[in-house]
Structure formats: C-alpha cells, structure tokens
Amino acid sequence: MIDAEDIDLVERCRKGDRSAFERLIEKYQKAIYNLALRMVGQDAEDVTQTTFLKAFESIHTYKPEYKFFSWLYRIAFNECLDLLESKKRIETLEEAESVPQPEVDEVEAREVRGKIDEALMELKVEHRAVVLLKHFEGLSYEEIGQILDISEKKVKSRLFTARQILRDILVQKGLGNVD
Amino acid sequence: MSIDRSVIELINRDIDGVCTPDESARVQEILQKDPEARRLHADLQALARNIQAIPRVEPPRSMKPAIMRALEAKSAPSWRTSPPRAWWNAFSLRPVLIFATGTLAGIALVVALNGLRLTPVVDKGDIVGTLILHGSDVTFEAGEVTTVRDGETSVSIETSYSPDLCLLRLRVESPAGVTARLQPGSETVTVDAVRPVGPSNTGLSVHGNEVVMDPSGSGGLTVLYAGTGKSHSSVRVTLTSSGKVFFDRDIALAAGERE
After folding, report:
1. Most buried residue, A25, B77, B123, B180, by CB count within 10 Å?
2. How far apart are CA B176 and CA B216, in angstroms?
3. Is some CB atom of chain B closer than 8 A to the CB atom of A174?
4. Residue B44: closest CA among A38, A161, A141
5. Which of the 8 DSSP states describes residue B43?
6. Which residues in chain B are closer than 8 Å to A49, comparing Cβ atoms?
7. Chain A residues with CB inside 8 Å of B39's CB?
8. Is the CB of B144 inside 8 Å of chain A's CB atoms?
9. B73 — contact with chain A (CB < 8 Å)?
C-alpha cells in the first residue's frame, strides 16, 4: 500500500519545502541506518547521509506508484554496493563484531543474535541484502525485487540459498538449532 | 542433504508465509513424515524469527542535522556551478580589475605576513559529524597509536598532524564507560571540529575550548585542533572510568613533540 503521507511529503519536497524532507529523514533514518550498518558496518553513517542527500537531489525522479521507502532503500543499497566495490572490502567477522548491540535482558538471546549478526556479515552481499530485506524489514518478494532490480524468481532463489548458507554457518558456529 | 529440492523450496515458501492452502497442507504432511525436513523447517523458522528480533540501533542524534547542513551547503553557492573564467582575461580586458586584484593581493599578503588567520570557534553546531578542514589538501601522516588499559577498559589514542592542523582520535571500549576530557595546553591551539567516530551515539559536549566525551560505554571521537605557527603544542588528555582517573597526560601533537 502506498503511504499517503509519503506522497504528500515528497510533493512538498519538490516544491522546496525543507521541513517535509526533514520529516522523511526522521521517518526512515533508523531503517536505512540499520540496514547500512549490516551491509557496510562502520560506514553506515556516511552511507545513510549520502542516501538522503541523493534522494533529495533526485526526488523529482521518484514515481508515486512505488512505495517511497522501496525507492529510498534502492538508493541506499546502491550506495552500499558502490562503497563495498570501491573499497573492495570483504566484511570480516571482526567487523561484524563491531556492530553495536543495544542492551537486551536475556544474555543467551543476545548471544544467539550476536552469532546471527556475525553470520549475516559472512554472507555475500547479494545474499545478505535479500535476507535483510526479507526478515529485517519484512518486505515481499516483489518489493525486494524492485529494490534490487531483480525478478521475483531470482529473489526467491537468492533468499532460499542465503538461508541455507546462513544455517550452515550457524551450525559451524555451534548453533545447530538457532531457536 | 537428502531432502528433495522441491520440498526445500516448499519449506522456504512456508517460512515466508506465501504457500497456498494446498501447499501448506502438503508441508504439514511432509513434516510429519520426514524428520530431516522437520529439522530444516524448525531451523529456518527460528532463523527468520531471530533475524527479525535483532535489536535496531538508534542512529546518531547528529544524523539529521548533518544531512540538513550538507543540503544547505550543496544548494547555497550557485557560483560554483559556473565554469571558472580564466583570470588573465580580466587583466587583458578590464584594466580597472588589475588595480582591484592587485589591492586584494596586497591585503592578502599583509594578512599572511602578520600571521593573521580566522580562528574558528567550536560550538555545539559543529558537533554534527562533519569535519571542518582548512583547505581541501590537508593530509595527515600515519597516526601513532597508543593503547591504555585499565581492567576491562581499553582506550586507543591516535595522533596525527600536519603543520598547522592536528588530529586526535580516541576509541573507547569500556563496560563502565569513560569520560574523556581533552584540554589544549596552549592558547595557540584551538578546537576546530569534533565528530563521533563510527556508528556510536557517543555523547559529546564542549565547554569553551575543552571537549568532554560523556560516559556511554563503547564509542569514540575525533578532535581536530588548529594551531598557529608551527603548532608545537600539546593537549591534556584525562580519562576517567568509574570515578577513577586512569590516564592523565599531555600528548604532543606535532612533530618532535611526542612523548
């Protein structure tokens, strides 16, 4: 479903209303930042800022028939890919460990999630992207396809493969059943 | 794995909640009969649930102001979009400009000879994640890193410098949190810009020419100091954890002045 508030905010942005863009930042910065954090680690802040700057510059190209956040995520993912490509960075386990974890009550649950976070960072970028969009953001195959510019069939294929690899990595880490 | 590929796909579709009623019934049937398929289903279901449950991190408070400031900076100077005009054209066509340009050059020379410079003063508006550099060609030499440890607390201190601009970077790992107090030891050095390091929510505050990183567990900050002359000045670094000062020393930031 298209978010009517987003359409209104985008319209106001196009007319030069900065406060409307501030509202869009408030609304989506956390989601973009968290995705970027798990895609590029410590560069998440820069990626998030660049994403919003590029979104503002190209706001006239946004088509209201698509969800605004899908369009924004697409910019964010392209930024992540560009950054990873330019740095030729291979995300290591060590970097995965640097992703800040907020305090949670249950130590065991935190440990499991920590290992899953690490395992995510070991996935190839294209696999990590579909897993995050599916399970972290709860998007449909169609929406993921729009963001990554791939077919739904390919989304499913990548997602199923990614989950299998993730499961294997977790088994290696001693988490046979991740429940 | 001995599970049929079509069954794996069916299980994945079930995890994603996109099975038709017939497919769902078939999945249940398979799970009842095949323990390996049951294990795969349980693992993938738990995996999906655990990824969903990974806590979201709050973006730094400075994020939105930084974006808005960058937008302002990008849209302000329209003259930058025009191609630069060759300066010598002005001389050949407009003699009056020769005089004007010469006067300006003279003023610039006087300013340079007197060592005058615009000394930026840091304020809370500068703590937004944007470095303020004097010129775009400033480069730092490889930093020198010192690690200070006190129990479970670890602070790495990295210093770099150019002739009149110094950088001090702290990275803190501490379950109890660390208060870092940075105080320039000389009036010839001023705090120029401050930014949090990495995706931390490090609390920063500035009191005059002094920067304090509030106790917030792990995190870091980068401080740029601008100095005049050769900038052989130092900064006093005081690190406190759980009310105890565990590091209190002057760190020289320029060549030949390191401790």
Report:
1. B180
2. 8
3. no
4. A161
5. H
6. 63, 66-67, 70, 129
7. 177
8. no
9. no
- Asked if the C-beta of B110 comes within 8 angstroms of chain A's C-beta atoms, the answer is no
For A120, name the nearest residue in chain B, comparing CA atoms only.
B51
Strand order in the sheet with B165-173: B144-150, B153-162, B165-173, B219-227, B189-196
Task: Measure in Å the smallest separation between the Cα of B247 and chain A Cα atoms.
Answer: 25
Nearest to A179 among B46, B68, B70 (CB): B46
DSSP state letters, chain A: ---HHHHHHHHHHHTT-HHHHHHHHHHHHHHHHHHHHHHHGGGHHHHHHHHHHHHHHTGGG--TTS-HHHHHHHHHHHHHHHHHHHHT----HHHHHTS-----S-HHHHHHHHHHHHHHHHS-HHHHHHHIIIIIS---HHHHHHHHT--HHHHHHHHHHHHHHHHHHHHHTT-SS--
What is the distance in angstroms between the Cα of B173 and the nearest Cα belonging to chain A? Answer: 11
pLDDT value for A154 = 94
A135 touches chain B (CB under 8 A): yes
Q: What are A165's two structure tokens?
A: 């690899």
Measured over the CA atoms of residue A38, residue A41, residue A42 and residue A46, the dihedral's sign is: negative
Catalogue all structural domains in chain A, each as residue range(s) with its CATH number. Answer: 1-89 (1.10.1740.10), 91-179 (1.10.10.10)
Name which of B12, B53, B67 is nearest A52 (Cβ-Cβ).
Answer: B67
Token pair of B128, please?
A: 């937004």
Q: Domains of chain B: which residue ranges?
A: 5-52, 125-252
Residue B136 DSSP symbol: T
What pLDDT score was predicted for residue B116?
35
Tell me if chain A has a CB within 8 Å of the CB of B56. Answer: yes
Asked if A101 and A34 touch (Cβ cutoff 8 Å), the reply is no
Q: Tell me the residue length of chain A.
A: 179
- B102 shares contact with chain A (CB less than 8 Å): no
259 residues of chain B, pLDDT tens digit each: 578 889 999 999 999 999 999 999 999 999 999 999 999 999 898 888 888 888 888 888 888 888 888 877 665 433 223 333 333 333 333 444 445 545 555 444 444 433 333 333 333 333 333 233 333 233 444 455 667 777 777 777 766 555 555 566 667 676 666 676 766 655 545 555 555 554 444 566 666 555 666 555 555 666 665 554 444 456 677 777 777 887 777 665 544 333 3
- What CATH number labels B125-252? 2.60.40.290
